[in-house]
Amino acid sequence: MKSYLAAAVQMTSVSDVDKNLAQAEDLIQLAVNRGAELVCLPENFPFLGDESEKIRLATEIAEKSEKFLITIAQRYQILLLGGGFPVPVSNASNGHAGKMYNTALLVGREGEELARYRKMHLFDVNLPDGNTYQESATILAGEEAPPVYYSEQYGNLGLSVCYDVRFPELYRHLSKNGANVLFVPAAFTAFTGKDHWQVLLQARAIENTSYVIAPAQVGMHTPRRQSHGHAMIIDPWGIVLADAGDRTGVAIAEIQPSRIDQIRRQMPSLQHRTVL
Ligand SMILES: O=C(O)CNC(=O)[C@H](CS)NC(=O)CCC(=O)C(=O)O
Questions:
Q1: Cβ(162) to ligand 1 under 6 A?
Q2: pLDDT tens digits, one per residue of 220-276
Q3: Atom 19 of ligand 1 has which residue's CA nearest to it?
Q4: Annotated catalytic, 135?
Q5: Model confidence band, residue 71 (pLDDT cutoffs 50, 70, 90)
Q6: CA distance 243 to 84
Q7: Residue 40: active-site member
Q8: How far are the Cα atoms of 216, 217, 268, 270 from residue 249, in angstroms, in the given order?
Q9: How far apart are CA 189 and CA 36, in angstroms?
Q10: 3-state per-residue secondary structure call for 87-106
Q11: Residue 63 CA, ligand 1 centroid: distance in Å
């Protein structure tokens, strides 16, 4: 593994797929110009809007998103994570007609698929601010544990999506399988984000002595849907290395193998796990 720059993109996706992909490319270009070799896009990067429109556009969103990730990874010669987009369930005869998986896809420099993960934990929550979220109305929960992509150059990259961050056992699974860089692409609500987002991310970094790369949605998507922002990169000690604040942009930081080794020597908690 080498030292390299990683970027967590922060954007405001709306219900216009082409506009979102254009915004994503602008921000990827910004990150690449600053030297990033691994760039991560947030959950819902190609679409964030009305649920019925998402269902109507699902096939188009899925196709355009995959094509975009492949084309852009090749064009800029980067590793590119698409942090979450709907992919229609292929076998519609199994009782899940019209449902989708909230899918994260990691693509390599030649446009090759490196890893894929279907979000396991669905955000079915009524918030005290009056907003209700029923992700399971349109999304089917993934049934396979998240993968680790083992890279000689970039480290062992563990996948997850958004609400997963509240389930530490998922990250334990990743670190047990060797992950030392964890992706948490998100569209965190403004309401929960202000109190929970950074704390949860730092906890996942500290307890797994791993880097956390957390791209984010920010701002108003619809008149009722606002995201918290603060895309960030956190080191294995839990220190926030970069924070994109509350506007669109990129959080960029160096991922250093020597830092992972150092922290895992200083705080060998992964070696002290007991079976409960
Ligand atoms: O709605 C869509 O179009 C796509 N899905 C999302 O944006 C997902 C599910 S609603 N958002 C989250 O998981 C937020 C979690 C969160 O904010 C928390 O855990 O506090």
A1: yes
A2: 999 989 999 999 999 999 999 999 999 999 999 999 999 999 999 999 999 999 988
A3: 163
A4: no
A5: very high
A6: 20
A7: no
A8: 10, 10, 35, 34
A9: 27
A10: EECCCHHHCCCCCEEEEEEE
A11: 22
CA distance 225 to 222: 5
C-beta 227 within 6 A of ligand 1: no
Ligand 1 center to residue 172 CA distance, Å? 22
Is beta strand 216-222 parallel, antiparallel or unpaired with respect to 211-214? unpaired
| Closest residue by Cα to residue 8 from 270, 216, 262 | 216
DSSP reduced 3-state for 216: strand
CA distance 98 to 139: 9
Q: Decide whether any atom of ligand 1 lies within 6 Å of the 166 Cβ.
A: yes
3-state class (DSSP) for residue 30 = helix
Query: Could you say which of 37, 40, 43, 66 is catalytic?
Result: 43
Report how far apart the first and last C-alpha atoms of the chain are (Å, whole number).
Answer: 33
0.90 exceeded by the pTM?
yes
Q: How far is CA 194 from the centre of its chain?
A: 18
Residue with tokens 């990150």: 31
CA of 10 to the centre of ligand 1 (A): 15
48 lines ligand 1 (CB under 6 A): yes
pLDDT in tens, 19-38: 999 999 999 999 999 999 99
Kindly give the number of the ligand 1 atom that is closest to the alpha carbon of 197: 20
Angle at 27 (CA atoms; ends 25, 30), nearest 5 degrees: 110
